Amino acid sequence: MFRDDHILRMIEQATAAIARIIGLKDARRYPQALAEIDQTLQRFWGLSSDTVGLMSADALMALARRGERLDLGKLVVLTDLLQAEGDVYAAQDMTPWSADRYLKALSLLLEIAFLSDETNWPELAPRIRALVDRLGSTETPSETNGRLAYFLERVEQSPGAASA
To answer: Which residues contact 3 (CB under 8 A, 6 or more apart)?
Structure first.
C-alpha cells in the first residue's frame, strides 16, 4: 500500500511539473522551462539536466534499478522529462539536443514496454509513435530500430490495434 501511494504521489508531482514546463515552453520562456526540468530531475533523480544529457539510456536505466527490480514509475517520469526537454530544445531549433533527449526517451519507453505486460503496449504505442515523429529523419541506433520495429509489429497484431 505504501509503495502504491508513493508511486501515485510521485506521478502526481511529476505531472504537475510537466504541466508547468509545457506552459513555460508554450509561453516561450525557455530558460525557465529548462530550469524547471533541471529542478524536477534533481528532485526525482538527484541528477542535473546536464548530467542526464551526458549519460546513455543504459546508464540511466541502471540508476532506476533497486537490486533486481526496475522502478518503472521513476523511469516513466524520466521519459516524460526527457521528452519535455526535447520539446523545449526543438522549440529553439536546437536539433542535436532535442534529438538526444528524444532518443533517450524512446529507448527508455521501449525498455518500459518490454519489461511490462504486453496488455500495456497499446497504451504505450501513441507515446512511442509521438517520439518517433519528433525524431523525424534523425538517425537512430540499429538496436533501437530493431526493438521499435518489433514493438510496432506486435502492437499492430494485437486485438486492440485499431485504438493504438
So the answer is: none
DSSP state of 69: E
**How many CB atoms neighbour CB 157 within 10 A?**
8
- pLDDT tens track for 93-136: 999 999 999 999 999 999 999 888 888 888 889 999 999 999 99
Q: How confident is the model at residue 164 (pLDDT cuts 50, 70, 90)?
A: very low
Contact 100, 144 (CB under 8 A): no
How far is residue 33's CA from residue 45's CA, in Å, rounded to a whole number? 18
Report whether 76 contacts 112 (CB < 8 A): yes
Q: What is the pLDDT of residue 39?
A: 95
φ, ψ for residue 131 (rounded to 5)?
A: -65, -40
Residue with cell 526535447: 86
